[in-house]
Design goal:
Blueprint (H helix, E strand, L loop, with lengths): L6 H10 L8 H6 L24 E11 L1 H4 L9 H11 L2 E9 L5 H13 L7 E5 L2 H6 L3 H16 L5 E4 L9 H17 L3 E3 L4 H5 L13 H18 L8
Parallel strand pairs: 1-2, 1-3, 3-4, 4-5
Helix pairs in contact: 1-5, 4-10, 5-7, 7-8
C-alpha cells in the first residue's frame, strides 16, 4: 500500500535515528524460539472471517516503533502497520495506520523523535501503538533508563490526549533474574500508570513458531507479520476511543 502522505517525514525521522539495526535473536531465545511448531490446521478447519463494509469516520492510528514496526526486509504492503490497517478495514473499521517505525531505534531514539513525529502529522491520531525496547536489551540498557525513556514517550502522547497500546518485550534469562524481572515488569507497570492497553509480548507468535522468521532468524516473514497482527488486532480495536470521544 503506497502512502505518499507518510513518506516525507518518515525520511526525515530516519535521519534522526541514533541506533543502527540490531538483532532480536536474544528475545526469541528467551521465550522459546526453539519450541516445536504447531501443526498447521486444514483449510476446512481455518476460521473464515467475514469482510465487512468500512463504516464511520476515519480512525488514525500511529504505529511508533523499531524494525518490527518498520517492516524490515519486507515489501511495504507486508509490514505490521499496513497489514493491521487491512485487517481492521476488513472488520469494518475505517482505519489508517501510520507507519512511524525506524529500524534500530532504542527507547532513547524514540524519545528523541516522538515530538517531531507528532508535530508533523496532519492530525492528532485517535490511538498510538508504542513498540520499543528490544534494542535496549541488545545494548544492555538498564531497565530504569528504558522505563524513563518510555515514560517520556508516553508523557508526550498523554499530553495530547492520545490513547496508547503498549507492545511489551521480554528480557532473555541470561541477563539474570533481577534484570529480567525489572525489564519485563516495566511494561505492565507503565500500561497501568497510563491506562494503556497492553500486549504482554509483541513477538510471542514468532517465539512459538520460528518458521515465521526470515533467514536472519531475527525478523518476521510476511506470514509472521500476519500472525502478529492476528494476535494483537483485538487489543488495538478495543483500545480505539468511541467515535463520539473525538481524537
Amino acid at each position: 500500500m503506497n502512502k505518499p502522505y507518510e513518506r516525507p517525514w518518515r525520511s526525515a525521522i530516519r535521519a534522526l535515528s541514533i541506533a543502527p539495526a540490531a538483532s532480536l535473536a536474544l528475545l526469541l531465545s528467551a521465550c522459546g524460539a526453539s519450541a516445536p511448531v504447531a501443526e498447521p490446521t486444514s483449510e476446512a478447519d481455518a476460521p473464515i472471517e467475514e469482510v465487512l463494509p468500512v463504516m464511520g469516520p476515519e480512525r488514525a492510528i500511529l504505529g511508533f516503533g523499531d524494525s518490527l514496526m518498520a517492516g524490515y526486509n519486507l515489501e511495504e504492503a507486508q509490514g505490521y502497520p499496513e497489514r493491521l490497517e487491512a485487517v481492521m478495514r476488513a472488520r469494518g473499521v475505517n482505519a489508517r495506520v501510520i507507519d512511524a517505525g525506524v529500524s534500530g531505534d532504542t527507547t532513547a531514539a524514540g524519545l528523541q523523535r516522538i515530538a517531531f513525529v507528532l508535530d508533523n502529522l496532519d492530525e492528532v491520531p485517535d490511538l498510538a501503538i508504542v513498540e520499543l525496547g528490544g534494542n535496549d536489551l541488545l545494548r544492555g540498557v538498564s531497565p530504569d533508563q528504558t522505563r524513563a525513556n518510555l515514560v517520556g514517550i508516553m508523557d508526550a502522547l498523554a499530553a495530547r490526549d492520545i490513547p496508547i497500546v503498549l507492545m511489551g518485550m521480554r528480557a532473555p534469562p541470561n541477563y539474570g533474574a533481577q534484570y529480567q524481572a525489572q525489564f519485563d515488569g516495566l511494561y505492565p507497570e507503565l500500561a497501568a500508570r497510563y491506562d494503556a492497553a497492553l500486549v504482554p509480548f509483541f513477538m510471542q507468535p514468532l517465539a512459538e513458531s520460528p518458521d515465521l522468521l526470515l533467514p536472519d532468524r531475527i525478523h518476521p516473514t510476511a506470514e509472521g507479520v500476519e500472525e502478529m497482527v492476528a494476535a494483537t488486532v483485538d487489543t488495538v480495536v478495543a483500545a480505539l476511543p468511541a467515535e463520539n470521544e473525538g481524537g
